[in-house]
Amino acid sequence: MNKAREIIDAYQGPKLRIMEVCGTHTHEIFRLGIRSLLPENIEVISGPGCPVCVTPVDFIDEAIYLAQEHHCTITTFGDLVRVPGTQASLAQARADGAQVKVVYSPLDSVDYAQKHPEEDVVFLSIGFETTTPADLLTIEKAQALGLTNFSLLTANKTMPGAYEAMKDSCDAFLYPGHVHTIIGTGICEKMKEEGVSGVIAGFTAKELLTAIALIVKKSQEGKPYFVNAYPRVVTDEGSPKGQAIIAKYTESVDAMWRGIGVIPGSGLALKDEYAAFDARKKYQVPAMHGHANPACRCGEILRGQIKPYECPLFGKVCTRDHPVGACMVSSEGTCAAYYLYGGQK
C-alpha cells in the first residue's frame, strides 16, 4: 500500500479523471478517506453505478399503480421505498393504505407469497448483473411451489452499455468488482480495443489504492490499458452459472437510465415463456412517463458532470431525512455519500 501511495503522490501529469462505476466504491472511497489522500490533479468522479439511482421515475409510478389499482402487495428492499415517483413515493402510498413490505432477500418475497395465497405479491426487481441472478431464481422457486400469486416488476440493467455511454466522461474507469465477478473481463478488453482504459478494483483500502495507482502509472504510458486488480475474485470468464441464469430467464432490451437516457440493449426483460411472472404483462400495466423533480440535478451527478454539493438542493431542501432525488435516498447513492461524509472534493 505504501508503494501505491508513493505512485499517487508523485503524479505530476495533467488532470486525471477516474470514474468509479460502483455505488459501493463511492462509499468506501469516502469512508476510508481515500479522496482526501489524492492530489489535486487526480479526481475521482461518480458514475451510474447505483441501481436505485438509475432506475427511472416511471418504475416507481408502475409499482404504485399495481399497489393502488390492483391491490398488489409490493415487496422490495428498503432503499426503493423512499424514492420519489412522479406524484408520490412508495412510503407515501403505504401511508395512504397501499401494501408495501420491506424484504431482505428476493426469496423472502416468494416465502411471503406462499404464506399469503390471498394476496398478489409483486417483487421489485432492480439491479445489475451482481444481483439479477438471485432475483430471477425467485421464478424457479415460485414455479416449484406452484404459486400463481407471485410476479416480478423488473428494471434490471447490464453495465457494458453504461460503459459505452460514459466513456467520454473520464480518462479511466474504476470497474466494479462485483459486476465483473459475474460477467468476467471480456467487456473490459473490448473497451481497451476501443481506446477506453480501466482497472477492476476490489473494496479494501489496499485494493482501491492499488487500482488508483495502476491507473496513474498506466496513464503515463500513453496507450489504452486494462488491468484486473481483483484477481482473487474476478476471473476472465466470470460466473458461468450466473450468466446461465440470466440467459435462461431474460432477453436484452433497450432501457431508460435516469439522467442518461435510453441505452440500447442495456435492460433485461423476462422472456415470453415467463409472462406469468411478469407483472407488467400479468396486470397489463399501461405505459407510464414519469417526471422527476425538475430542481433535482441527480442526472448530472450520475453522468459525472457535477458534484452533489453543486446542486442547489443538496444539504438544504434535499437531505437524508427528506430526500428529493434517488441519489440521496439510496445507501449506494453519490449524494448520500457526500452528505454522510461531508465530501467537498
What is the number of beta strands?
11
Numbering strands along the chain, what is their spatial order in the largest sheet?
Answer: 4-3-5-6-11-10
Largest sheet: 6 strands, mixed
Mean pLDDT: 94
Secondary-structure element series: HEHHEHHEHHEHEHEHEHHEHEHEEHHHH
Termini separation (Å)? 22 Å
Which percent bin holds the helix content? 40-55%
Structural class: alpha/beta
The parts where pLDDT drops under 50 for at least 5 residues are: none
Shape, principal axes of CA atoms? globular
Percent range for β-strand residues: 15-25%
Instruction: Specify Rg, calculated over alpha carbons.
Output: 20 Å
- Please give the count of helices: 18
Task: For the structure shown, list the relevant keywords.
345 residues; alpha/beta; six-stranded mixed β-sheet; 18 helices; 11 strands; globular
Describe this structure as you would to a colleague.
The chain has a six-stranded mixed β-sheet with strand order 4-3-5-6-11-10, sandwiched between helices. Strands 2-1-7-8-9 form a five-stranded parallel β-sheet, sandwiched between helices. Strand 5, helix 9 and strand 6 (150-157) form a beta-alpha-beta unit. It is globular and about 65 Å long. The protein has helices at residues 2-9, 23-31, 34-37, 51-54, 57-69, 78-81, 90-95, 106-115, 132-145, 160-166, 177-183, 186-193, 205-219, 240-249, 279-282, 298-302, 326-329, 334-341, and strands spanning 16-20, 42-46, 73-76, 100-102, 121-127, 150-157, 172-176, 198-201, 226-228, 250-257, 261-270. The model has no long low-confidence stretch (mean pLDDT 94). Helix 1 (2-9) runs parallel beside helix 13 (205-219) and helix 2 (23-31) runs parallel beside helix 18 (334-341). Helix content is 41%, strand content 18%. It has 345 residues and is an alpha/beta fold.
